[in-house]
Write a structure and sequence with these properties.
By secondary structure, the protein is α+β, with helices and mostly antiparallel strands. It folds into three domains: 168 residues, Reverse transcriptase/Diguanylate cyclase domain (Alpha-Beta Plaits, 2-Layer Sandwich); 78 residues, MutS, DNA mismatch repair protein, domain I (3-Layer(aba) Sandwich), CATH 3.40.1170.60; 109 residues, DNA polymerase, Y-family, little finger domain (Dna Ligase, domain 1, 2-Layer Sandwich), CATH 3.30.1490.100. Helices cover 30% and strands 20% of the residues. The strands form four sheets. A five-stranded mixed β-sheet has the order 5-6-1-7-8.
Length: 446
């Protein structure tokens, strides 16, 4: 390839540039945003866990906690046996202690929204696999060309830039794999965790994969790995050199897929999970501020950006909201709904500013503006004189009430950007079916 592909150009499979972005111990990283003193400490985030109790299961174990035998999907009681809770031991205890926190999905989804906004800025096609994982096709944004004739590629710099942007703007670490196909990119993102960047150009795929243990191949779990080893297959190279027929006999079509992935063959295209449910933009202040003029200025800029993004995607919206993060890291959301979908940048600004008034005297460290209940179908725009924003918060949750009965009420803290590809619904319930290293991912889509 002589240079980056132009949008719409036909791309050979080996010339694709796929990124797999995987947030490292995501729930623990989010907790450390709120409690920076937990950085470097053994941290366990539990599903169904309550402070001081022993029930529930481990959703995330930080790398420091893993060193002491704590694993994802492990019972909290078992984790406590391996890593005592800090508040349970006396001052004379000289062993290692852990810090346990309950899952806070609303907060994690709020952080994930910020990551997702960055990913969509840097790729035309993004597949959101879960709250903490996504594939990006950046073929039309960068290239496999070598820099100054050396080993580094332009694609490596692009992947590093995205990774650094997530760290700077959101404050959580990500591992990134860059490769010519999805399965190799997935393996690459796991290769140098945490906070890693692994780039596998097309001519290096075989050399990268061959020496890896066979259970590093995407789709090979512990049971399959054991069965493959019974066949004398220990490494990805062994699997690539195997006769595929016995693999198909034993594992069905999946045996052929694993054989192809071990050879670096994967022609799947990155497909988006569907139209977004909302669009948002956030920005942090250098230091928390209570200056209302500064807060208004930031909201105006964010509102203009969000409205422009909606218009560029041909989206109209029925709900306009703001996000206000106050020290130490308390997330507050407010929203008002319209009687019908509109495309009105001035309205986004005015509603966002009205919602901001509630926080006039608050110290604020970050602000966000969002439009949601998106519509991508052509329709007559709702009359703006039918919108009557509420003058005061309603109920105990402090949300503005919609003007009409059929308008959706937006629950405080509810984030719906990471959506299920099949149902179109946000995933908010924890599950431990997929026991990934260090974290049981909530709401896996695949």
């Amino acid at each position: 390839m002589d240079g980056p592909q132009l949008p719409g150009a036909t791309v050979d499979a080996e010339d694709r540039i796929i990124l797999h972005v995987d947030m490292d111990c995501f729930y623990a990283s989010c907790e450390r945003l709120r409690e920076p003193e937990l950085r470097g400490e053994p941290l366990v985030v539990g599903m169904g866990y309550e402070p001081g109790e022993g029930h529930g299961a481990v959703a995330t174990a930080s790398y420091e906690a893993r060193e002491h035998g704590v694993e994802s999907a492990q019972a909290i009681r078992q984790a406590l046996d391996a890593l005592p809770r800090a508040e349970d031991v006396g001052d004379d205890y000289d062993g290692v202690v852990g810090y346990y926190r309950p899952v806070d999905m609303e907060f994690y989804q709020s952080v994930a929204e910020e990551v997702k906004a960055i990913l969509h800025d840097y790729a035309e096609t993004v597949r959101e696999v879960s709250i903490d994982e996504a594939y990006l096709d950046v073929t039309d944004r960068t290239g496999w060309d070598r820099v100054d004739g050396g080993d580094r590629t332009i694609a490596e710099g692009y992947g590093r830039h995205i990774k650094q942007q997530i760290g700077r703007e959101v404050g959580v670490p990500a591992s990134v794999g860059v490769a010519p196909n999805m399965s190799t990119a997935k393996i690459a993102s796991d290769f140098d965790k945490p906070d890693g960047l692994t780039v596998v150009p097309p001519d290096d795929v075989t050399g990268f994969l061959d020496p890896l243990p066979v259970d590093e191949i995407h789709g090979v779990g512990p049971v399959t790995a054991r069965e493959l080893r019974e066949l004398g297959i220990e490494t990805a190279g062994d699997l690539a050199d195997a006769d595929p027929a016995p693999l198909v006999d034993r594992f069905g079509q999946r045996g052929r897929e694993l054989y192809d992935r071990a050879r670096g063959v994967d022609d799947r295209e990155v497909t988006p999970t569907g139209e977004p449910k909302s669009l948002s933009r956030e920005s942090a202040f250098t230091e928390a501020t209570d200056e209302m003029d500064a807060k208004r200025e930031q909201v105006r800029a964010l509102a203009a950006d969000v409205a422009a993004r909606a218009r560029s995607r041909g989206a109209m919206y029925r709900t306009i909201g703001i996000k206000v993060v106050t020290p130490p890291f308390d997330v507050n959301t407010r929203a008002s709904s319209l009687p019908g979908p509109v495309d009105e940048p001035d309205l986004v600004e005015s509603v966002a500013l009205d919602l901001l008034e509630e926080f006039a005297d608050e110290q604020v460290r970050k602000l966000g503006v969002r439009v949601s209940k998106l519509s991508f179908e052509e329709a007559d725009q709702a009359r703006l004189d039918g919108f009557e924003p509420a003058d005061s918060p309603a109920g105990g949750d402090g949300m503005a009430t919609p003007a009409t009965d059929d308008a959706e009420r937006v629950d405080r803290g509810r984030i719906t950007d990471w959506i299920d590809a099949d149902t179109g619904e946000a995933s908010t319930e924890p599950g431990i079916e997929d026991r990934r290293e260090g974290q049981s991912s909530l709401g896996e889509f695949e």
